[in-house]
Here is the input.
Amino acid sequence: MINGYGVKSETKVIMPSDPQQIKNFEGFRDALRLILPKTLGFEDLEVRDYEIVFCCNKGADEFLLETASGGIAALIDIAWQIYMFDNDAKEPFAVVIDEVENHLHPSMQRTLLPSLVAAFPHAKFIVTTHSPLIVTSVENSHVYALRYDENKKVRSYLLDFKSEVKNAVDILDEVLGVSTTIPDWAIVKLTSIIRKYADADPTAESLVNMRDDLERNGLGRLFPQAIATIAGDNK
Here is the structure.
């Protein structure tokens, strides 16, 4: 597309410009400005010695396409494929992406779909994901969870996120079936410590001792959860 600008030697036109190629080049650049992370500071594309250079932060930073990280490269690839399918007629079309969060840093997962919707307003995006950050990233969307029914058959269930906003932990539990984000090894230690103090009525001394045990095992932040568990068991 860069050849669309043509080649001139003083007043002589060696290669005429191609308005369509110029439009494609600048249009894709504008799409990247919307899709790439704001922290990257992307501003323009240049071609030097047949290498595509991404210019960022008012020329202070730059990188070659082939040196882009996996996440940035994935975004560029997605943007390019959608942009080449889009046309001047701006007719509605659908984009299907499986596991759209692949290779993306969590911060990119939060902004990916809103950025794609902004860059390609005529597209309808149908994506699958295991990322809670993707699930709730677009306000005006329909989210379906795939779950087993009583007959062990997979069914789709429409979820309601419009009446109540959910955070990532809630999504992991309610949508993806991950009831806790605590590692299994920590659960084992936590359970062992709770059992040590659960049989007797809690006292100020026992609570202090339990907190000390938790902190020695790197579980100090779980002290409120431990108290709640013991209180529930003693009801």
